[in-house]
Design a protein that fits this description.
This protein is an alpha/beta fold and 386 residues long. The protein is 32% helix and 27% strand. The protein has twelve helices and 19 strands. Strands 1, 4, 5, 6, 7, 10, 11 and 12 form an eight-stranded mixed β-sheet that branches. A five-stranded mixed β-sheet has the order 16-13-19-17-18. The chain has a two-stranded antiparallel sheet with strand order 2-3. Strand 4, helix 2 and strand 5 form a beta-alpha-beta unit.
Length: 386
């Protein structure tokens, strides 16, 4: 099996930034930490962090703090020198991922897609097509308008077959913007795969502010989870029809181990699905006698409390009951109130609707009733939606 290693290049001087951008804090962590964690998530076989000599001890301490295994080596005066030194320090690998630590927002899929794209030619780079018109300017005067259809902005992580990269570095001493340029000069073919618009390179202080905003946006999205639930029960004799904790005036109830409240069951599964916490059958199995005839509304409240202990609170629930009979509209306001109390939310956060199948199928023949629900969970520390 091919071994895959990575070089995280963090030895630059950041002359355009005016300070060492790779070690400045970005949302509480040094910029270089993001690149290390990216490469660690890709389950590569070896990792080398290339830094300026004054950062050696700090780099080793950061690896230990993050719980990562890897080597640290001193970079050179130029980027290609740093890559060459890192490559010499890298354990035996067939493929090498080279990533610029100044791109802290790169995602693991870029590494994985790069490894796949490089298989054909031994070299692959991520790129984004240029959308703006590009002109070559000299002395404030336009001398040429370039065909933007042929122009791409190239990013990292870039992926190379190790022997090809080593040869390119050995045969040229030129200072280049990226190692792919050296491969090109050898006559090698470099494949381009789709990069990412948010794979930002930190060059100016404004870039740091933009990166912080993008990280905040990602964090906000990670605070939200959506789940879907569905439940169906046949009608049965000898028990009341209970939906959303409300006993309805109907000659038949819903068969089931508990009280058969399909509406509550669908909401429970939606909540558990959003939290990736299993399903209602796993939490309240029908094989356990203690749940026989249990109030599904109480089970819903127990699930809500258990998820709260895991740091989740309910944002809102939207549920639909599917049945030909009975007419549910008169009971919906009370259902919403019961459900809101069990979920510890305002009534306005709970929607209950009813529909039919226009007499199609088992539900249309009145043999039973179904419910489906969508639930939004939010991390307890997240701000309430406006």
């Amino acid at each position: 099996m091919s071994r895959r290693g990575a070089l995280l290049v963090a030895a630059g001087r950041a002359t355009r930034m005016g300070f060492d951008k790779l070690w400045v804090e970005l949302r509480g962590r040094p910029v270089v930490a993001y690149g290390l964690e990216l490469l660690a998530r890709c389950q590569l076989d070896a990792l080398v962090l290339v830094v300026a000599e004054p950062r050696l001890d700090q780099a080793r301490a950061l690896l230990a703090e993050l719980g990562l295994r890897g080597r640290v080596c001193v970079g050179g005066e130029r980027r290609r020198d740093s890559v060459a030194r890192g490559l010499a320090c890298l354990e035996a690998c067939d493929w090498v991922v080279v990533h610029d630590a100044a791109r802290p927002l790169a995602a693991p899929d870029l590494v994985l897609r790069g490894l796949e794209a490089a298989r054909a030619t031994g070299a692959a780079v991520p790129g984004v097509p240029i959308a703006d018109t590009v002109k070559r300017v000299q002395g404030g005067r336009v001398v040429e308008t370039l065909r933007r259809e042929e122009l791409w902005r190239i990013q990292t992580p870039q992926v190379f077959r190790r022997d090809l990269l080593a040869r390119a570095l050995a045969e040229s001493d030129d200072d280049v913007g990226d190692e792919a340029t050296l491969i090109e000069r050898l006559g090698g073919e470099v494949r381009v795969f789709a990069g990412a618009e948010d794979n930002l390179k930190l060059t100016t202080p404004d870039d740091l502010r933009l990166a912080a905003a993008l990280l905040d946006a990602r964090g906000a999205m990670s605070q939200l989870r959506v789940g879907i639930g569905y439940d169906v029960h046949p009608f049965g004799e000898g028990r009341p029809l209970v939906l959303g904790g409300v006993a309805l005036d109907y000659p038949q109830g819903l068969a089931g181990h508990s009280d058969g409240d399909a509406l509550c069951h669908a909401i429970i599964d939606a909540l558990l699905g959003a939290a990736a916490a299993g399903d209602i059958g796993g939490w309240f199995p029908s094989s356990e006698e203690r749940y026989r005839g249990a109030s599904s509304l109480e089970l819903l409240a127990r699930v809500r409390a258990a998820l709260a202990e895991r740091g989740w609170r309910v944002g809102n629930v939207d549920a639909t009951v599917i049945a030909e009979q009975p007419r549910l509209a008169p009971g919906v306001p009370e259902m919403r109130q019961h459900l809101a109390r069990a979920l510890d939310v305002e009534v306005e956060c709970v929607s209950v609707k009813a529909t039919t199948t226009d007499r199609l199928g088992a539900l249309g023949r009145g043999e039973g009733l179904a419910a489906q629900a969508v639930a939004l969970l939010m991390k307890s520390s997240a701000a309430s939606p406006q």
